[in-house]
Amino acid sequence: MGDSGEGLVDADAKIQERMEELQKSREQARKPRVRNHERVQKIESLKLARTQLNRQLEAATHPARKVQLSNAISEVDRQIAALTAAI
């Protein structure tokens, strides 16, 4: 009688293992494939730089510095757009 209980436990374990495999494959399918990791890292770096420039712009008081930071943000936005379009 003990053997039949072990068979059910083994079957449950196999079913659970198969469900986990299916879940992993679904998660892999949902993730977009990244072909150029360097480009993605560059975009993330530019986004961080833009955040920092934006903080500096908010804190800036001198008009010339504000113009300079605004131009820098525009350039970073241009680079992000170019890299994003290339992906």
Main traits of this protein?
87 residues, mainly alpha, 2 domains, 3 helices, elongated
Work out the number of β strands: 0
Q: Which band does the percent of strand residues land in?
A: under 5%
Helix segment tally: 3
Q: What oligomerization state is this entry in?
A: single chain
Q: Extract low-pLDDT stretches.
A: none
List the helices and strands in order. HHH
Tally of discrete structural domains: 2
* Helix amount: over 70%
The main pleated sheet reads as: none
Radius of gyration (Å): 26 Å
Shape: elongated
Sheet/helix structural class: mainly alpha
Folded structure, characterized:
By secondary structure, this protein is mainly α. It has two domains: 1-31; 35-87. 87% of the residues lie in helices and 0% in strands. The radius of gyration is 26 Å and the shape is elongated.
Report a brief summary of the structure.
It contains 3 helices and no strands. With 87 residues, the chain is mainly alpha-helical.
List the helices and strands and how they pair.
Blueprint: H1 2-30, H2 37-59, H3 63-86
Helix pairs in contact: 2-3
